[in-house]
Amino acid sequence: MIGDTNQKDMRSITPFRDDRSNPQVQVAAGKGAYDNTRAVLLQIDLAVVKGKRVLLKPNAGRIASAESGITTNPQVVAAAIDMFRDAGAIVAIGESPIIGVETMAAFEATGIASVARERNCPLIDMDTGQPVHVLIEDGVAIQSLTVCPEVLEYDIIVSIPVMKTHMHTLVTLAVKNMKGCLWRRTKIDLHMLPQIDGIDDRSLNIAIADMSSVLRPHLSLIDGTTGMEGLGPSAGQPKELDLVVAGIDPFATDAVACSLMGLNAEDVPHLRIGAERGYGVIDVTRIQVNPDTWHDLCSPFERPPENLSLRFPGVTILDEQSCSACQSTLLMFLKRYGEKLFKSLPGQENVTIAIGKGHESVPYGTLCIGNCTAEHKNQGVFVSGCPPVASQILKAITKRDLEGLR
Ligand code: SF4
Q1: Residue nearest to ligand 1 atom 7, measured at CA
Q2: Is 0.85 surpassed by the pTM of this model?
Q3: Positive or negative torsion for Cα 306, 309, 310, 311
Q4: Under CATH, domain 3-297 is a member of which superfamily?
Q5: Is the CB of 144 under 6 A from ligand 1?
Q6: SS3 2
């Protein structure tokens, strides 16, 4: 059974001063993950958290270490635990990872479990609680969400993403990181939405802006210790920055992080849409950033490729409404086993691969990856799973007669 709530409570109650006419963002660099985090939090009045229950929401959505640039650095989380506790808060860490990933295994792999154990700080698998149905009054692409109960039970939610580019959304930062508070598989619903007539923006990006109206973190702490550029959020290159960004307005905090990544927040659809609706400020000229020399820390990130097929010569990727899990699997497969793909196909110079639910048809001979492509399985080779793992794809292409796969 799914409970209901009044979502107005979620967006309006914050102990922090959330002044959208004068947003402030803190940046600290060059001291290592723990001390950078302490430095930015020291600039924020944490006295207001005394006696409050604080939920830290890092990006621990995948089985990956922080050095990969995929997940939040555990020392950022460690410093946040220590700082909030010193301020008198009761702290826990929660996550609901991408489908196919077990939460506690992800906490272990990221190193967050280790720093939590050292501090006797609870780790919460947010997929195990009773989900709550939240209405979105201002929703354009979505009118409701099914969320993990902890986001309502805790007084303060702190979004702690990694600074990453993202194939579908250009970046994934504090606003988008809240998608990891959607309950279990309901996260993938945002990837499956039909295009809205008369609106150029992808429904996924509109839905993230819709989501941000009800899942607004009270504080955003962006980990730029090791970010990810290029094929983010999981198959790009790690990018060392050694900095942390923090602020109360998640849009302003994301906008400053975008600038540090050499990107313009106006080019990030979910940030632009949210800012147009008044959810936050992304015009960096209207944001007070400390220190005022912060621009010197800018280190441009390689953008995600517009077209995956350009990145993998000989492979045509048809991606229609896939979610991050299938995309990660495919990119992982191509990075690890791309050469084997062509060895399995002597004489062939091009392979077509389909992921996602939105294909009306696919060419004959397509490698169809994931259950979402099942209706086209007779067109070529089908790899079941939601998501499949890379080794399953390898097994599928090596064990059967691949004649016709192109
Ligand atoms: S099959 Fe892939 S794209 Fe479809 S829901 Fe599963 S993980 Fe997402």
Answers
A1: 387
A2: yes
A3: positive
A4: LarA, N-terminal domain (3.40.50.11440)
A5: no
A6: coil
